[in-house]
Here is the input.
Amino acid sequence: MAADTAPPPVPAEKVDERVREVGRLSKVLTRPELGAVAGVFLVYIFFAIIAYENNFISWLTTAAILNRAAPLGILAAAVALLIIGGEFDLSVGSLVGFAGMSIMVLVFPTDAGGFGWSLWPAVFLALLIAIGSGIFNGMLVVTTKLPSFIITLATLFIFRGLTVALTRLRTNRTQLGNLDEVEGYEFARTLFVSEFSLFGAKFDIAILWWIGITAVATWVLLRTRPGNWIFGSGGDANAARNQGVPVNRTKVALFVTTATAAWLVAVIQVVQFKGADSLRGTLQEFYAIIAVVIGGTLLTGGYGSAIGAFFGALIFAMVQQGIIITGVDGDWFKVFVGVVLVVAVVFNQYVRQKAAQR
Amino acid sequence: MSNNGTPLLEIKNVSKYFGSVIALQDVSAFVRAGEVTCLLGDNGAGKSTLIKVLAGVHAPTSGHYYFEGEEQHFESPREALDMGIATVFQDLSMIPLMAVWRNFFLGAEPTKGWGPLKRFNVDFAKQTALEELHKMGIEIRDPDQPVGTLSGGERQSVAIARAVYFGAKVLILDEPTAALGVKQAGVVLKYILQARNRGIGVIFITHNPHHAYPVGDHFVILRRGQVYGDYTKAELPLEQLVQMMAGGADLEVLQHELEQAAGGGGEEADALAEVAENIGDELDELGD
Here is the structure.
């Protein structure tokens, strides 16, 4: 670095020059999403070459990638905020299943063990259930002061177990369908799973939800008081508390945010598949964390971006789609994801050292 | 200052016990507006406990805490802060990965707009952070710089500037010059004087008499949880302060022990002998 080579007795002006250089350097390197944006290009070019024959560069493939990325991206935007706030939520995948199954049990005919509600009240109650689950996660974490990794690992099993057990108890099955026969379905379909055609390909409306939620998350993070509190709570909870930041309230709100995102994904999937499966959302918590980490957010908290998570989800979906259309055995998908994850984390580590250097 | 004579913040006969451990016993001290009170003590003298009592982190086991003439019982540091008692802890209450301006306004962010569009007034925050730091003589080119990239002295200075900006009446500084180089410590001392000149009462906790003496108006020396001495600057020459801090008698014993150890010969013994000689010189200087 320039600092090492500079002669020791530097006049005051020179010292300032040096500080500014370092500032400018770290300013570029400390954009959290930098790595993910570069990654999007790299992965796209990689598959554009590998899968050129299979029409990777086409609107159809682009639409397929975006449609695949959207639900994951919605989860990842919320999970990014939570991880920046210094906590984990391993229960989001289970909550997708829990919220989706809640909707289905509520709308299912009474003679088959359901409650016979129409769709919208069921969707609304499922939202309340999700918010309650988020508060439950958050309160457990802030009152026990245990790592959220452990707490939400426990609730991962609790929510998944409840989904299977309660559904079977009431309806004697683990998959419920025929949502399209329920009142209110058509409007929900328009709102959550309609498609729009562009360049001859069909894009899901969920992509707009994904973009919108990412935009809101970014705005909250960078331009509001709670956003500053999220950075503070994740960066150093004690220091933030000393400055009067309501750290516990911020964290509970973040758990509610991830639970709400899980609810939205559940609604989209329930409407899309016209039903729910008690295993829906399995492993989504890990995919979301991977998207967030590829997006440049530090697992240790205090640093990251929702835009990064957007590109992280995009990379994830590109890899998935690229492997599918090249016809490579799907088993290789996980290998590829693992490799991308390690590369991303190594890169982030490097960036953090740049940012924290004195 | 106009209200000279009336302490702004005062503690009287404060004791703090942790189980069977007596951390503080009958400690009294005060600070007036526009003055610097230095609390000095070596490791284990009770400085950390005292600062936590002053900051509202610990409630004293017994004794009284007065602020602006009224007795206070703080439940949390936030309550003390709301009254204008700002503490800059050694860990700084600064978040290294966050930008200077984000740190500066953390927990007290200025907003604009209303309702759901109420937002962090970023331009104002950046501008104000730069201006306030400039007023304290700290030049930071880029408010987006993470605090982690600042030097130790700069971080202390930002923390002090922040407390001053948010209307601190009393500024409690926990070892702000510890772990700093000579030059940086000098910069921080300068900010202490600037804060004092703005009419703030400063409580400066340190174990270094050479840092305390140039800026202090009062000196309270703590030893083993008790007040060992309480002086105004006029009553106490620097040499005496240094000697009280180090404990002149202790130093003589140490010198003697080192000389004995050095009797063994060898390289290590030579080094010890040199240390012993230095201590002897220092004692001589103190005697002058």
